[in-house]
């Protein structure tokens, strides 16, 4: 487990949701809803693991969308940071959601049985993990055959103009973020600029996942990496 990352999320847990919406003008909410939509697109019943659930937003979006679509879902939502999980638990209590269970677990060594899930989701985790190979192996281990993963992430847009715009915009994020926690928002912008989406797909392909796709989301700085376990 990365102490540095755990400490960062403990220090910003109380402002995490607000600052995410503020810096993206609410677009992060649309991205999560698109990830949730993708998670329940195919069948009528699901067992879903949301890894690095943080304050629980993706798990909550899945639960709400499944209810509207009259689909049955059971969601286990895990994160290694208890401060983020505490906020997630309060959110589901307020919303009276009862099909999400939260657990403290490390994505690098999940305390979950093999071949147990139809879908795995993870939002904004990839930039924060020590070893993407180990994570990909864990996802493969816990998914059922033909199970699907949806990884929501942020990385430098591939369009040069947009990339230049975000490089400038990140100076603003660092400035405002330094009023809360300088290291946290430096890490956020640094990790986004250095994340390589194609390398991640190569790693997943090397682990034998099929139907690998990268789908750009509004603003092109957010995207989904999806794939299926053979
Ligand atoms: C940027 S937040 C994303 C939270 C949530 N998925 C969302 O959409 O807002 C990243 C989360 O990953 C968690 N995290 C980072 N590394 C982890 C690991 N190795 N195991 C479990 N959780 C981890 C952090 O504690 C944090 O809650």
Structural description of this entry:
This protein has nine helices and seven strands. It is α/β, with parallel strands linked by helices and 230 residues long. It has one domain (3-229): Vaccinia Virus protein VP39 (Rossmann fold). The chain has a seven-stranded mixed β-sheet, with helices on both faces. Helix 7 (160-177) runs antiparallel to helix 8. The longest helix has 18 residues, at 160-177. It starts with a helix and ends with a strand. The mean pLDDT is 96. Bound molecules: S-adenosylmethionine.
- CATH domain class: Alpha Beta
Count of runs of 4 or more consecutive helical residues: 9
What small molecules are bound in this structure?
S-adenosylmethionine
CATH architecture descriptor: 3-Layer(aba) Sandwich
Order of helices and strands: HHHEHEHEEHEHHHEE
For the sheet with most strands, the description reads: 7 strands, mixed
* Strand segment count: 7
The low-confidence parts are none
Give the overall average pLDDT.
96
Structural class: alpha/beta
CATH superfamily: Vaccinia Virus protein VP39
Order of strands across the main sheet? 3-2-1-4-5-7-6
Question: What count of structural domains?
Answer: 1
- Which percent bin holds the helix content? 40-55%
